[in-house]
Design a protein that fits this description.
alpha/beta; seven-stranded mixed beta sheet; 17 strands; globular; Rossmann fold
Length: 476
């Protein structure tokens, strides 16, 4: 059970100074998702374990929290309407619209994933119908991948932020509140905006080089009590649980992966900067942290130093490495040091057990490396969870059988399985986007095998279902 008294301390930690209501108010909205529950399997002593649906437990949207912190640092009055706990078909659009407009926003910012883009459109349309003069700006992975299409599909949205928005949105908001969209010039990289019936701006994404200069996420603007309560449903070691981001970007170019928001240039926060945030979270009452980096172990020396600092500071916290760690970026010293610092769950991005498929999708790893990393992590004491994608480009019936055989040999503690889904911004999507013309965004769902948008080679929908079921057998 979480300690509810932590939330009064959180307010003091993250919002020490009371802020008068300001004219320049920005309301940030996190739309509800259309995603189905996560498709997963778990090993046990039973030999009849089936694939099960595991409800997706909401995590605080760090992207929006970072944007909010940057805006507050610049002097804006920021409010959040957070619909993370809602599903797309279970929220009242009229109530949401009223909640947004009652906050009297000068600018509205909406986040977007492909799984939330339809909800984002609905919210934007409803708000614009009631208050047409308030600028609506959208950001996030989906809008970053398709800024022009996003604005074409939803006329209620006035601008799209491409890439990392902490600085771009801040500067663009200043422009909106001072000059408006009818001004002659907007000299900002990473913004596409609407003026009349035409779109202007520079769609090249903006990425932040020095992450240590960013303020910590504005967690105080969210209902942390609700997030802490929901974290009791995590398969965690300690409670309550929260999340943290210690690096951004991934230098690899997997065919199926989209990196439109964080980019492919790997950038890090210094260990002392990360530890300061961990100390705040610990003081606020959080006892476990999910590290959600795309590539946490890319900089081996940084991770070793971070673990050393955690031990030196005697931070009594546990760590779940939720991001898909690469199997070719771990060794015994690194994994042992991480384990001693409190890391106890590790997720490996395996994807396939077939070397030919791994090569085709540009993963840059081999089945031999997968086996070695899983067995090493288990020997050290980690709970090992692997990510697998069925129906990858170049895969076949034999490929899927090789994946299942490898998992049976290695015996991970759990498997998270998804269907290959080409998301906007990925190389796979770019090569096939003409085939997806007219496909509703709601169908971009890697956990729904009933109506996949992509099937590789000569495989069938029934075969994809078979592979997902087979991954659910006892792998030990």
């Amino acid at each position: 059970m979480c300690n509810f008294s932590i939330f009064s301390r959180i307010h003091k930690l993250f919002n020490a100074k009371s802020r008068d209501k300001q004219k320049n108010r920005i309301v940030l909205v996190t739309p509800p998702s259309s995603l189905a529950p996560l498709y997963s399997s778990s090993s046990s002593e039973s030999s009849t374990v089936k694939v099960i649906d595991v409800p997706t437990i909401p995590m605080l949207p760090l992207g929006t929290a970072y944007i909010a912190a940057s805006l507050e640092e610049a002097g804006f009055d920021v409010k959040v309407v957070d619909l993370t706990f809602s599903m797309e078909d279970r929220y009242d659009i009229d109530k949401v619209t009223k909640a947004i407009l009652n906050l009297e926003p000068g600018v509205i910012g909406i986040s977007s994933f492909t799984s939330t883009i339809t909800s984002a459109y609905n919210i934007a349309n409803a708000v614009k119908k009631e208050q047409k003069d308030t600028p609506i700006v959208i950001g996030g992975p989906h809008a970053s991948a398709l800024p022009h299409r996003t604005l074409d599909e939803c006329s209620a949205i006035d601008a799209a932020i491409i890439g990392e928005g902490e600085y771009v949105f801040r500067d663009f908001a200043k422009f909106l509140l001072n000059d408006g969209l009818q001004s002659e010039t907007v000299d900002l990289k990473g913004v596409v905006f609407r003026r009349g019936n035409q779109l202007f701006g520079d769609p090249k994404p903006a990425y932040i080089e020095h992450l240590d200069l960013l303020p910590f996420p504005a967690r105080h603007l969210f209902n942390l009590k609700k997030y802490a309560e929901s974290s009791n449903y995590f398969d965690a070691k300690k409670f309550p649980v929260t999340s943290i981001l210690t690096s951004r970007g991934c230098p690899y170019a997997c065919l199926y992966c989209s990196r439109t928001s964080s980019g492919r240039r790997f950038r890090v926060r210094r260990p002392d900067n990360v530890v300061r945030e961990l100390e705040q979270l610990k003081e606020a009452g959080f006892n476990e942290v999910q590290i959600v980096d795309d590539d946490f172990t890319e900089d081996r020396l940084r991770v070793l130093e971070l673990c050393r600092l955690i031990k030196t500071k005697r931070l009594d916290m546990s760590f779940n490495l939720l991001g898909g760690i690469r199997v070719d970026k771990v060794d015994e010293e690194l994994l042992s040091t991480m384990y001693d610092a409190g890391c106890y769950v590790i997720h490996f991005g395996v994807e396939s057990g077939d070397d030919q498929v791994l090569k085709y999708i540009r993963k840059g790893i081999t089945a031999k490396q997968i086996k070695k990393a899983i067995q090493l992590a288990k020997r050290i004491g980690y709970k090992v969870i692997v990510y697998v994608i069925v129906g990858l480009p170049g895969s076949s019936i034999e490929s899927e059988k090789k994946t299942i055989s490898l998992l049976q040999e290695c015996g991970p503690d759990a498997t998270r399985v998804s269907i290959c889904t080409p998301y906007p911004g990925s190389t796979l999507w770019e090569t096939m986007k003409d085939q997806f013309e007219g496909v509703a965004w709601e169908r971009y769902n890697e956990s729904d095998v009933s109506n996949p948008i992509y099937i590789s080679g000569d495989q069938t929908k029934a075969q994809l279902q078979l592979w997902m079921d087979m991954v659910g057998v006892d792998l030990k």
